Amino acid sequence: MPDTIRLLSTLALKGAVANLAGQYEASSGVRIDADFAPTLALLDRIRRGEGADILILTQEGLAELVREGCVAAESCVDLARSYVGIAVKGGAIHPDIASEAALRATLLGARSVAYSRIGASGILFAQLIERLGIAAEVNARATIIPSGFTAERLITDEADLAVQQISELKQVAGIEVVGPIPHELQTPAVFSAGCMTGSEKAAPLLRYLASAEVAPVLRESGLEP
């Protein structure tokens, strides 16, 4: 029976981790048991006593668990940076989101915008529309999901715009990523990994995930190493 490493990861790295896990399992003989959810949900699960060997969370979320003694500080490493983007259903016209004014007009003109309630992208988007002074108008027609992939609401025609980390948007077939929200309107999320206290057996996998070897896979999934 091969060794098993339990890995809990934020949704933003699901595509990359699924790809890399297969490669690592084939070369090492170690089985990776991975589960994916928004950072806030994973923090809650860990604090309720769920066990794991490796955690991939937002940099801020992982730092909280280091302070609480759940994650070994010396093991922590930044893996990737991610921007929030906008997607449409495959074949739909790509709206203009290149500037603050264009984005504002596009959001106000949308039938419905899908975003997540607790994900890092959803929190950023909620703050952004407040800053733009259009929160009431957008939220009156928004499709706000508790967690998961917002672009799925494009496929079901519940929304005509989906907002999420670009790497999460790319997980859904049948959609097209228009591009990132203008960089000057957002702060990129940094996703970091660390070993839970006492999970030394996971150190080789963590080194692999942080190596230059995996950079092309991260880029392909919509992340910046």
Describe this structure in a few short sentences.
The protein has 225 residues and is an alpha/beta fold. The chain is 37% helix and 24% strand. The chain has helices at 14-28, 39-47, 59-67, 100-109, 120-131, 135-141, 152-155, 166-169, 203-209, 215-220, and strands at 4-9, 31-36, 54-58, 77-82, 84-89, 113-116, 143-145, 161-165, 175-180, 189-195.
Mean pLDDT: 95
For the secondary structure, the number of strands is 10
Structural class: alpha/beta
Radius of gyration: 18 Å
Question: Termini separation (Å)?
Answer: 33 Å
Biggest sheet, strands in spatial order?
2-1-3-10-4
Q: What letter string, H or E per element, gives the SSE order? A: EHEHEHEEHEHHEHEHEEHH
Largest sheet, if any?
5 strands, mixed
Structure description:
With 225 residues, the protein is α/β, with parallel strands linked by helices. 37% of the residues lie in helices and 24% in strands. The chain folds into two domains: 4-81 and 189-220, Periplasmic binding protein-like II (D-Maltodextrin-Binding Protein, domain 2); 84-185, D-Maltodextrin-Binding Protein, domain 2 (3-Layer(aba) Sandwich), CATH 3.40.190. The chain has a five-stranded mixed sheet. A five-stranded mixed sheet has the order 7-6-8-5-9. Helix 1 (14-28) links the parallel strand 1 (4-9) and strand 2 (31-36). The model has no long low-confidence stretch (mean pLDDT 95).
